Each structure stands twice: as structure tokens, then as C-alpha cells.
Amino acid sequence: MLPDNSVQLIVCDPPYNINLAHWDNFPNYIEWASRWLDESYRVLAPSGNLAIFGGLQYQSEAGSGDLFDLLAYMRKNSSMLLANVVIWHYRNGMSAQRFFANRHEEILWFAKTKGYFFDLDAVRMPFDEKTKKLYKRDKRLKPESIEKGKNPTNVWQISRLNANSSERVGHPTQKPLDVVRRLVQALSFRGSVVLDFFAGSGSTTRVAIEQGRHSLACDVDARLKEYIQQQLKNMQSSSQGHFSPALPYTFLKQDEFKEHPVFSFAGREVLTEGVATSFGPGRHC
Question: Is 110 helix (H, G, I), strand (E, B) or coil?
């Protein structure tokens, strides 16, 4: 069992309960989800954050629970604070004839306490040069603030992964690295612990390593190890510059799990020697 108050960020992409596969159908979605939501509160540090990807049920799918039901449960049964609802907007997707084609998903961001960690500067978007010049004429605005860039807002325009994306590792519901990266950069800090217990494609583990965070990951899918190995292969061959060889990483075996920084105060100190990663099979709570 993970210690209380030991995790800074939980990135959670649970089954949406929309019958995509055998693992995506729950007769009582909220009863099932309540167990991992309650545990999330226990393991999060006072500065900790929980980010939940989610979908909505439409027409004949509706009734057994979706993201709106998770939000209602948290408002009624948890002291965690709803800090933001992020709208992940994408332009690519399936067409439709009987309804408006869907082009967004939601991410609920909950904070454990009012003292939650949020690093806006880490995710600011730069102004173009024309806008910079215009804003610098306004004496009310500080030049240093203009140079930092703008708040990305809670509407994120990031494309979904198409079938031949170089990021693909084989998982059917893989999320873009840019979405996960923004969450990790803004809601956790260097040397902190990032947990993903619906690890799926291993994207959160990859981003955690790139950004100098310790990673914990599990999933019911036995292919998780294969996905993570492919993520690391992609990471090391990437030319995007997000990965730094100066940050070594170590994978802990099952009998070494107690050595993970999540079990020590040092895991919440500033990172100096690299990152630790542990992953393995798990149950969906």
C-alpha cells in the first residue's frame, strides 16, 4: 500500500464506461470508481493534484455512469476542490450524420487542499513578435510578464493521435504526449511522484521521466511493460528535445519496490540524482 500524502500528481485516464472493450463496461460505474477516488485522496500530498480524463455517455449508452457522475460524486463525497475543467479540443475525429460530431474531451482537475501546487510559468504560451510589440506599448503591462507568455487557458487545442502517428505504441486509447506533458509540468514539480494507475500506453511514465519526476504506473493490461519499453525507445530517439540524457532513470523490480522514493521523504525533495520508475500489473481497484 502506498503511504498517505506521498504522491504529488495522479494522472488518471480511466475507462469511460462507453463499451469500447471488455474493460470498459461497468454495471455500477460510480461504486467502482468511488474506491479509487477515495484512495486518490489518501495518497495525495497536501499540495497534490488529481487530473481525470473523461467522456460522456450519449443516447443508448447513458445511464450507468460517466464523467458527470464522477464530478457529482466528488462534490458530494469528497473534500477535494474542483480547480478547473479543461476542455481538450481537437479538430480531427469521426464524422456524424445524426448529431454534431464530437471534437472535445474533458479533464477534471481536483486539488486536495487550497495549498495545491500550480506552476503556470512552466506551461505559458509565447506571444508572437507582433503581439509582443503591441503589448509593450501598453505601460500598464510589465515587459517581463509579456516575455513569459500567456496563460494557455482551460481550452487546449491539441490534435488527437492519428493512426500513423509516430507517438503510437499500440494502445487503443493513447493520449497525446502534449496533453499529458502540460498536466505534469503544471501540477507537479521536479523530483515529485507522479502516479498513473490506469497507465494504458505508458505515456505518463514517459513524460514523468522526461520532466524529472518519479513515476508509478500499473494497469490490468499485461502489455503495459511492452508499451513502456516502446515509449522509452521513442523517447530516446525523439528529436523534440524534451528528453535529457542528464536525467538517468532506473526501473525497480518487484522486490525493489520499497526503495521507490514514494516511500521516503526524499521522494518529495528536489531531484538531483535521476528518477525512479516502477510499473506492473494491477487491478482497476
Answer: strand
Distance CA 263, CA 258 (A): 7
Does this model's pTM top 0.85? yes
CA distances from 194 to 118, 150, 212, 237 (A): 14, 26, 10, 23
- Which pLDDT does position 58 carry in this prediction? 84
Helix (H, G, I), strand (E, B) or coil at 87: strand
Q: Which pLDDT does position 244 carry in this prediction?
A: 53
Parallel, antiparallel, or unpaired for β 275-281 and 249-251? parallel
User: DSSP secondary-structure letter at 98?
Assistant: S
- The predicted pLDDT at position 284 comes to 37
pLDDT tens digits, 217-270: 999 888 999 999 999 889 888 755 555 544 677 888 778 888 888 887 444 443
**Domains delineated in the chain:** 7-121+154-281 (3.40.50.150)
Helices 67-77, 29-43: axis angle to 10 degrees equals 50
How many CB atoms sit inside 10 A of residue 218's CB?
Answer: 18
Beta strands in the chain (DSSP E): 7-12, 44-54, 81-89, 104-111, 155-157, 193-196, 214-219, 249-251, 275-281
Amino acid at 96: A
The helix/strand/coil state of 189 is: coil
What are 194-222's pLDDT values in tens digits? Answer: 999 999 999 999 999 999 999 999 998 88
Backbone angles phi, psi at 203, to 5 degrees: -60, -40
CA end-to-end span of the chain: 12
Long-range CB contact pairs, 153-157, < 8 A, 24+: 154/84, 154/85, 154/86, 154/87, 155/86, 155/87, 155/89, 156/86, 156/87, 156/88, 156/89, 156/182, 157/89, 157/90, 157/91
How many Cβ atoms sit within 10 Å of the Cβ of residue 138? 9
Answer whether 156's CB lies under 8 Å from 89's CB.
yes
